[in-house]
Structure formats: C-alpha cells, structure tokens
Recover the amino acids of this structure.
C-alpha cells in the first residue's frame, strides 16, 4: 500500500515539474519579479530543459535515486531563487516535501538516519 501511495506522489511531483518546464518553454512573458534578473531570462529554456531531464531521471527506475537527488538540488535552488526575488516559495517547498515522502515510501534506503 505504501508503495502505491509513493507512486501516486511520484506522479504528482512529476506532473508539477513537467507543467513548470512546459510553462517556461511556452510562456512569452516573464513573471514581473523575474524581470529584475535578466540573466535568468536568458537561461530560462536551459532551466526548463534541465527540469525535464531531471524528471526523466526521476521516472526511470534505474536512475530514480540520482533523479531524486538532482530534483532536491534543483528545488532547493528554486526555493532560494524565489526568496531572492521576493516571491512566495511555497510551491517548490511543497513539491520538495512531496518528493521526499514519495521516495521514502518507495525506497526506504534514502531515509538515512531515519532507517530502523
């Protein structure tokens, strides 16, 4: 049962990240807070491509752990970027928490000190 819940959360995280990447690729207008950082606007397609690569790694069972760790790094950077821009960082924080719960339910070896 726990693995099914973990799989459902895994799919939810994947959909949220994919939607974020597609929005970055399709959107013609940057959010107002992002206009203060033109170097980010120049790299937005690369950021979206990186998101998609991470999600593919996260979804493939053989590369799930490396995808998980890359996802954590990416979302940590997203939280930091939102804080710097003064935007709410609730979205990336929730996705990060859900990814940890999903991974723990599917593979307890990532729990580190929480392992019994």
């Amino acid at each position: 049962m726990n693995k099914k819940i973990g799989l459902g959360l895994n799919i939810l995280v994947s959909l949220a990240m994919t939607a974020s990447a597609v929005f970055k690729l399709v959107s013609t207008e940057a959010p107002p807070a992002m206009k203060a950082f033109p170097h980010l606007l120049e790299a937005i397609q690369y950021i979206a491509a990186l998101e998609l690569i991470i999600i593919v790694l996260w979804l493939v069972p053989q590369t799930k752990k490396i995808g998980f760790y890359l996802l954590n790094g990416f979302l940590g950077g997203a939280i930091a970027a939102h804080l710097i821009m003064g935007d709410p960082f609730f979205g990336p924080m929730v996705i990060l928490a859900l990814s940890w719960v999903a991974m723990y339910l599917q593979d307890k070896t990532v729990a580190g000190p929480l392992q019994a």
The helical segments are 2-26, 38-42, 44-59, 64-85, 90-106. The two ends are 19 Å apart (CA to CA). The mean pLDDT is 86.
